[in-house]
Each structure stands twice: as C-alpha cells, then as structure tokens.
Design a protein that fits this description.
The protein is built from 8 helices and no strands. α2 packs antiparallel against α8, α4 packs antiparallel against α5 and α7 packs antiparallel against α8. The relative contact order is 0.15.
Length: 202
C-alpha cells in the first residue's frame, strides 16, 4: 500500500516529503512505546513464555528491541526510495552493510550472543542512517524534518520508560521481576503513562 501511494507522488517532492513525515509520525506513535516497552518487560515476558532456562536471552532480546526500532525506519525509508525508482544506490549501501554485518558477526561470535546482537544493532543503525541520508539528498528532506514528527512519541516513550522502571524497582521485592504479575502490571503502567505523556505533549 505504501509503495503504491508513494509511487503516485514520486515526482512531487513537496507531497512526497509531507506524506513521508506523516507516515513517520504514525509509525513512531506505535513503534517507540512497543519497543521501549518490550525492553522493559523482557525479563518477565521471557520467563513467563519460555521458562527460567531462557533467561540468558533477556539481554540479547533487549538489544534486538533497539534493532527492531531501527529496522522499522529502514523498511519505511527503503519503501519510499524504491517507489521513486532509485534502487541501485540502495543496493550498494545494503551490500556494503552486509559485508560489515558479516564481518562484525564473525568477530562478535568470539564473545557470544550479546556481542553479536550488539553488532547487528549497530549495523542496522549505520544502514538506517545511510538510507535516510540518501532519501534526504533525493527529496531535499532535512534531518529536522525527519526528527520533528518523532519527537512527541520519543519523549512520551522516555517518560514511560522512566515511570515503568521506577514502578518495577518499587514492586520488585513484592511481585518479583520475573512474575506474570510484574509483566501485566508493568504493561498497564506503561500504557497508562504513555497515554498521559502524549496527552500532556499534544
């Protein structure tokens, strides 16, 4: 759907920039709290779903939450570039990143899964930055235009993160960090605090 919509306005840079920033605004309102929230509830989520033996995967999962956020931006921006018919430079960027990712994972594997997940996240960050930079060059989009629509969701998510973190520290002794009670209550606190923060920032 997005590809078709952007294809129809690919020759009108003003409309393309406006449509892109609107989509970024919508996506950020959902993705920031989801990935920030998953990061926070990872210990209880993994324990409840998979059991104690999977607890060593909590930290890699949390790191991959950040990679997921970067990947959403990457996928959205790539869709716009493909709709404009400018595929070749993106292929070069992705190819160079693939080489970097392969080399990084090979080196990171020496230190384990946490190092590998860190390398993957850093690589996604480099790739996302390069793709957005290329789109800015194509459409005369500025970095301020890219960041501004995401600011409310980011600030609200940071406030949510802090609120849930304080709540978890306050209730850890009674609920236990790995309990289903902690999972459900943290989720409720996160949703509520994010909604309140957005309402304040509106």
């Amino acid at each position: 759907i997005l590809f078709s919509a952007f294809s129809k306005i690919q020759d009108d840079q003003r409309r393309l920039r406006a449509a892109y920033t609107k989509v970024i605004l919508t996506v950020s309102l959902v993705c920031f709290p989801v990935f920030f929230g998953l990061f926070l509830v990872a210990p209880s989520l993994i324990y409840v779903l998979f059991g104690e033996k999977w607890l060593p995967s909590v930290v890699p999962f949390q790191i991959f939450c950040m990679a997921g956020l970067l990947r959403v931006h990457l996928q959205l921006t790539s869709t716009v570039i493909n709709a404009m018919g400018r595929v070749a430079p993106e292929i070069w960027i992705r190819s160079a990143t693939f080489v970097l990712l392969t080399l990084g994972c090979w080196i990171g594997s020496i230190w384990g899964i946490i190092a590998v997940s860190t390398v993957v996240t850093i690589t996604f960050g480099i790739l996302a930055t390069a793709i957005v930079f290329y789109l800015c060059k194509l459409t005369r989009l500025t970095w301020i235009d890219f960041i501004r629509p995401q600011r409310p969701a980011f600030i609200a998510s940071v406030l949510m993160f802090g609120t849930v973190l304080i709540y978890q520290r306050w209730t850890e002794a009674t609920l236990g960090i790995h309990s289903i009670g902690m999972l459900l209550s943290s989720s409720a606190v996160g949703i509520s605090s994010y909604a309140v923060a957005l309402w304040i920032l509106r």
